[in-house]
Write a structure and sequence with these properties.
Radius of gyration: 18 Å
CATH topology: Spore Coat Polysaccharide Biosynthesis Protein SpsA, Chain A
Order of helices and strands: EEEHEHEHEEHEEEEEEEHHHEEH
Structural class: alpha+beta
Oligomer: single chain
Number of domains: 1
Shape: globular
Distance between the termini: 17 Å
Helix content: 25-40%
Largest sheet: 12 strands, mixed
Strand content: 25-35%
Mean pLDDT: 90
Number of strands: 16
Number of helices: 8
Length: 287
């Protein structure tokens, strides 16, 4: 499993990956790792910034007897050989780069998760069902858009198109918020979405062969002009979509009709605390 936890949390205003939640006062990634252990995962790579290593290790040390945990630092200069980047660039490159950074730790098929999202038991069960029927498949478990929109403000979401159990397209929108009549709208483009449209929350189960394709996609991304690269983000859904459009991978898709909660804005804290407390009181929660 690769946990994407190196973001700078610009909308949140703090290091949200290290914020503690729930009755047991643990970080969200600890909740995710607990669920991963239940569902048979034995290794995890946490992609972090260097200054997060000590605190993150302290938060996750209680799980080391159940799962092997490695740490990969997402450095700005960790790019394919021959690639030149603007010296002014300081912040991480995004979630696709985080997967690229973890490449040397991957030994087989792997799952990607966000370090600032809580994935409910139903999400993991959907993945189990897909892999029980298609053991060697790459797959994505999506949510309904309406389940992933907080009241606190706009969020980034990968809007998906499904066909006959496969993902055909993923398009990233960065300013989606609730609108009237069971719809949502992206403020930047004006695009309107129905509440039931499936969205990616970076819950991808991928085959190791995909990593060999990342270098080529990385070179295309880093070939952009320096003025673009100063703020550009290389996002995982965009890479997956590029590989789908080029027919270089096939991705099974399933929608988990279950609740979601995560952190984007500081005002999400209260909702997340309530969500975790209610979830932990249910007898069918596996943790």
């Amino acid at each position: 499993m690769i946990a994407l936890a190196a973001g700078i949390s610009s909308r949140y205003g703090g290091v949200k990956q290290l914020e503690r939640f729930g009755r047991d006062r643990r970080i969200l990634l600890a909740h995710t790792l607990q669920m991963a252990i239940v569902h048979g995962f034995s290794r995890a790579v946490c992609v972090i910034r260097e200054e997060m290593r000590g605190p993150m290790e302290a938060e996750l040390c209680h799980l080391r007897e159940f799962i092997e945990i490695d740490y990969a630092v997402q450095r700005v200069d960790d790019v394919p050989s021959g690639v030149f980047i603007p010296v002014e660039r300081k912040k991480p490159w995004g979630t696709a780069h985080a997967v690229f950074v973890a490449r040397n730790f991957v030994r087989g098929s792997f799952l990607t998760v966000n370090g600032d999202d809580y994935y409910a038991p139903g999400v993991w069960e959907c993945l189990d069902e897909v892999l029980a029927q298609h053991q060697d498949a790459s797959a994505m478990v999506a949510h309904r858009l309406s389940a992933t929109l907080p009241d606190s403000g706009p969020v980034s979401r990968g809007i998906c198109e499904f066909a006959e159990g496969y993902v055909r397209k993923i398009r990233e929108f960065s300013t989606i918020a609730r609108a009237e009549n069971q719809r949502a709208v992206d403020a930047r483009t004006g695009t309107i979405f129905h509440a039931d449209v499936p969205v990616s929350m970076n819950f991808f189960y991928l085959q190791p062969s995909v990593l060999h394709l990342f270098s080529a996609e990385a070179r295309a991304f880093f070939a952009q002009p320096d003025d673009v690269l100063l703020d550009a983000e290389w996002q995982l859904p965009a890479v997956i979509d590029a590989l789908l459009q080029k027919r270089k991978m096939i991705l099974r898709g399933v929608v988990a009709d279950c609740p979601w909660c995560g952190l984007t804005h500081a005002r999400d804290r209260e909702a997340l605390e309530k969500f975790l407390d209610e979830s932990s009181s249910k007898p069918n929660l596996r943790s």
